[in-house]
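# nightly structure sweep
# worker-07 picked up a monomer target from the shared queue
# config: single-sequence mode, recycle default, output format = structure tokens
# input follows
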Amino acid sequence: MNVNLDQAAGQPMIVKYVETSHNGIQSLSLSRYAIGYILRGEKYIYYGDKRHRLSRGDLFYLGMGHHYTEDIPEEGHPFEQIMFYYTPSELQRILLHLNITYGLNISNDHTCENCRSFNHVVTPAWNPVRSFFVHTNNYLRDEAFLRDETAENIKMTELIYLISSHEDCCIKSKLLSNIDTAKENFEQIVYDHIFRDISIEELSHRSLTSFKKEFKRLFSLPPHKWYIRQRLMHSRLLLISTSKSISEIGVECTFPNTSHFIKLFKKEYGLTPATYRNRHLEAARKSSGQPRITEPAPHAEEQPGAAEEAV
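# output follows
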């Protein structure tokens, strides 16, 4: 299922999402950056052959582009999360305000494999952040707040302050990397063309060498390999969430022909698309109402860490 949670541009948008039932894995498309907090339930974010688990009290960051997520309600209670959306220009404005008004000097020396490799990061929220989201949840019950851009900006400024003044960490690193509007424009172009058959020359006005260098800096992979991986991840979602044929899925994910799609899929996941689908269906039949994906173990160079699981 494809969902666009990020529906409005302009001022920072604060939204509470409530899921009363388990709707399986969804493909989310974000045109802005987002910071979220899990109020209740569990959330999974999927990458290739592994998934990352988020639970109540976790603070997380989602970069723009496509994400594959699964929101799971608690027993007898809905899944609940609050999301803050922002653009680089809005972030710049808030950070400048904090610097001029309060003398906040922001620095960040943190970098790690998670920051470089993933389009999301997650960390348990520290006490001031937990309190902030409890209060924000109370605000969101007031209809007047939902129409008050000033109130939204104040809450957004408070959240940015809590993160940027915290010790160096993945969330802070990702946030501060978003002040580059040129980076945002580059990323937006890349994500807009995941499912379009277009050459690099047509995609960018840069030289081929310059484009590839910037691409690898931002995405840690060469363009061709990254695009294939994104298309294969999307094909997995279609295999387990639709009844479309293998050839239809290959066409939708921009592979030139079915045999090429099958070959690349097997190389990436160790199974043909048909076998992958059948294993998932068999696992779903054996489950107790909440289907989970059964997949091959992660590649040797992608062993999951403490915050992630092999699926």
